[in-house]
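Hi R.,

Here are the chain sequences for the assembly we discussed:
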Amino acid sequence: MKYDVVIGCEVHVQLLTETKAFCSCRNTFGGEPNTRLCPVCTGLPGALPVANQTLVEYAVLAGLAMNCTIVPVTKFDRKNYIYPDMPKGYQISQFDMPICEKGFLEIDTDGGLKKIRIIRIHMEEDAGKNIHTEDRSGLSHVDLNRAGTPLLEIVSEPDIRSPDDAVAYVQSIKHIMEYLKISDCNMEEGSLRCDANINLWVYEGDKKYATPIVEIKNMNSFKAMKAALEYEILRQKEEWTTKRLLLKDVGKVTRGYQEKTQSTILQRHKEESAEYRYFPEPDLKPILIDPAWVESMKSRLPELPAQKRKRFAEEWGLPELDIGKLLVDAELAHYFEAACKEYKGEPKKVANWVITEIGNMLNKESITIIQFREKVPPESLGELLNRIDSGVISGKMAKGIFSDMWAEGKTPEQIINEKGLKQIDDQESLKDIVREVLDQNPKTVEDYKNGKENVLSFLMGQVMKATRGKANPRLSQDLLKELLQK
Amino acid sequence: MIDDKTLDEILFLGRLDVSREEKEKFKDQVGKILDYFDLLKQYDTTGVDPDLGEGLKPSVLREDKSKVTFNESDIETFAVDFKRGFFTVPRIVEDFLENRDEDE
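And here is the predicted structure of the full complex:
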């Protein structure tokens, strides 16, 4: 069976504004239920919405970062549906005049960089939450704290060709949002939500058949997303073989991902937009966007992952693999760059330390780079590496000091001084130690002289033992060889 | 003018129960509104942007500064049923619950 997988994503991100989209209630996660409400977000008659200027700013920043056109005139529309989590009976969204159009993202895949086109980015408000009780009261509870939370919905073209690429695409959006600091994109808390549309293009002879499009919901992690899409490909292949259903006959259906069974189940046939009875929101005037203002917003864009990737490769000659690992987390990339500023040597060495030593530490301690940074600022890492280069400490000692820096929250210098960890690189005192080691191991010296040069590492070990690891390794080796020649 | 059948449909969609007298009154009032639209239809509005007519200003945006508004007792004054911090509503029937689109 010859086929292509066709995936398009709808990503919702909650924005980190101080207030909700259309009223002045605080916009934060969680807290006591129904404590951030006003006449607007509870849908009381006569209450009028006013759009949050930061929502518009963030939408423009996101659009610019995703290479979109920012339209000169945009408006809000009502998307009508009846459910207790939306007491107005409609969601304020954008229908035919979204704020951003026609963008693209480049994602990093196994097959190199791939371009995914973005159809549109629009602004809308989130709904409240229904809590369905299990008791016999026959009641549901409603918490409207989330109602009115500003969202961006980012809709891609169906340019994605595999579950891995879909994950890479959504991760790339997450990274951009984090670099822009406009959303924390926490999938568990629901500040990043993704629905995927997936179907197959099956090739038979010179004919191409499209299977029904399935919209998958309820994917609450990147792992779930990959599993859901992989399951759906198998299911659609099976369905094609047994039923030969076509997109043009069946249309689009919604299926929900079930974590327990790692499968998807049918939810319903998808509503067409007509069923939402979209019409322009009469309580909000269209927003005129001044092109000069958009230009000025460009200066507010930080360096984005794609640009950093290029710079790390071109200016610093870092390997692709390292760059990928550093860019995964905006804060990790910041940390790396700050450490490079302090360090006088090659950035590659800093990259190694950040990826391996810090990476291990974060895993072991289950902490974020932000928490790590509070105790070990990037300048300290740079300083530690400078000490290795100047021969004050050995690489091995540095690792011990690094652990202490985290445990005690001290600078490398403080630890080196307190613990007397300075490397012994005074030739005369080291020579005495080496001589002593040779005197204590006459048989090994004999072996060396008979051509067994590999005993050198044993002798090095003895020197390190005698100095508790503080001997300058290169100098010790030179001295060993020199004295063994005699 | 509006016929009885159309008026009945509008009342049904609006979930409104009215008496016979009220119905006659509404029939007359709704009829007048519709007649007024007939009058408006006589004007040629080609090329006039419905959102940005003359004298209408574009949207004013709000500064992103929070204000505290409702406290619990405020909510109790208008909520039909508010218990232990939650609005309570009749349970959404199972079937609908399962078919619910979470991210609408």
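The two ends of chain A are 76 Å apart (CA to CA). Residues 412 and 418 of chain A are 10 Å apart (CA to CA).

Let me know if anything looks off.

Best,
T.
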